[in-house]
Amino acid sequence: MANSAGDINENRTGTIADLIADNPLFESLSRPVILSIADRMTEQRFSHGKLVMEEGEIGDSFYIIYSGHVQAVLYREGKEQVLSSMGPGDAFGELALMSQQPRTCTIKTVGNVHLLALKRNDFEDLYHHYPELAMKFETLRRQRVSLLEDDTLNSSQLSKFISDRSSAKLLDYSLLDTLSKLNEAAGGQEQVDHSKETGQLAREMSKILCPMVGEELLFAGYLHEIGKVAIPREIVVKERQGEPLTPKEQAYFK
Fold first, then answer.
1. Chunked in runs of 10, what are the mean pLDDT values of the chain (254 residues)?
2. Phi, then psi, of 174 in degrees rounded to 5
3. Which of 23, 69, 171, 241 has its CA 20 to 30 A from that of 81?
4. DSSP for 34-95?
5. d(CA 74, CA 78)
């Protein structure tokens, strides 16, 4: 049976609150609000290969991974396509707190998994009790609705895009090492670190607005400056340090 967060060993309650506070959905909220959210969360445990949620169902819970790992997957023509993998501290299912839209993917456990779940009705109680929580989620809701109602990217087009690129080719994570080496050749370790951080930040931001393409954004971060490999290294370093460039040097970047 699921237990309330309050029933978890007392010295772990602070850890649960910290997990909540670190999540982009809840960051910047005051500690009393974070602790109230933690008090409403329940524990759920799953063995290997279990489905936590399924694509197309109407969700009623948001989850944070306390321990273990899960995969976000799609099933197309009898084949399983892995969109992303998540581990301790990662979260999923946030749409269930903001709307009653169908789940966009299936979440499957990899090994034993310990989750913390927040039900929509518990969240709504907190939403009405804490104005700062309501203000934060209204901002997020407007951002999400704006994204899905944009003429150039509506929800059905987004679903088709996800399906098309997933069935075409899965991401090859071994390429990230190669991309790092190309970034090092282009701009040294500083460019390697910058590209990696950019990709990770983009992936974290996507968890709020467009979680189903987060892994593509990770790869995009590794790629976004890789064209500098065609520019003499000393000019790349000079530009990165903010030194003025000659017209000839500027021409390289153009």
1. 45 76 85 90 94 89 92 82 83 79 86 93 88 80 56 52 50 77 86 84 69 76 86 84 88 82
2. -65, -20
3. 23
4. HHHHHHH-EEEEE-TT-EEE-TTSBP-EEEEEEEEEEEEEEEETTEEEEEEEE-TT-EE-TH
5. 10
- What is the reported pLDDT for 160? 56
Report the alpha-carbon distance of residue 252 to residue 254 in Å, rounded.
6
Which amino acid would we find at residue 123?
F
CA-nearest of 3, 74, 81 to 42 is 3
Q: In Å, how far are 26, 36, 213, 225, 230 from 166, measured between CA atoms?
A: 30, 39, 10, 25, 31
Residue showing tokens 């850890």: 15
Q: How far is C-alpha 9 from the geometric centre of its chain's CA atoms?
A: 28
Helix (H) or strand (E) holding 5: none
Q: Which pLDDT value is given to residue 7?
A: 45
**Beta strands of 93-163 (E only): which ranges?**
106-119
Residue 27: left (phi > 0), alpha (psi -120 to 50), or beta? beta
Tokens linked to 68:
């273990």
129 alpha-carbon distance from chain centroid = 27
Strands 42-46 and 51-53, sheet pairing: unpaired
What are the C-alpha distances in Å from 121 to residues 59, 62, 126, 173, 242?
12, 11, 9, 38, 52
Distance CA 196, CA 183 (A): 10
